[in-house]
Amino acid sequence: MQGVLRAVELMDDLNVGLLNMSELHAFILRVDPGSFLNFLILSHNILVVFAILFPDHFIPEVHVAMEKFLSQDSLALTEKYR
């Protein structure tokens, strides 16, 4: 969740802002190159938890915005795999 917080802080340019984290996942931790799917699964789980914890505030517009943001976050983290 610290990584998601960092992504929120760097939202204006996720690819540049998360470059170090992308390199960490690709070269040091050697996360599987097919990990984009894993990041999407993690994103989905984050959405489910938010929906459970904040049912009154998790309206459809928030759901769509969060899903879009987490998808862009996943793309930025897998940038070094391309």
From TrEMBL:
Q: Which UniProt key words apply to this protein?
A: Heme, Iron, Metal-binding, Oxygen transport, Transport
What InterPro entries does this protein map onto? Globin, Globin-like_sf, Globin/Proto, Hemoglobin_oxygen_transport
GO molecular-function term, one example from the UniProt record: heme binding
> For this chain's UniProt record, which GO biological process terms are given?
hydrogen peroxide catabolic process
Where's the Globin domain? 1-82
- Coiled-coil annotation reads none
Family matches, as Gene3D superfamilies: Globins (1.10.490.10)
Q: Name one GO cellular component term.
A: hemoglobin complex
Q: Please report which protein family the annotation says this sequence is part of.
A: Belongs to the globin family.
The name under which this protein is listed is Hemoglobin alpha embryonic-3
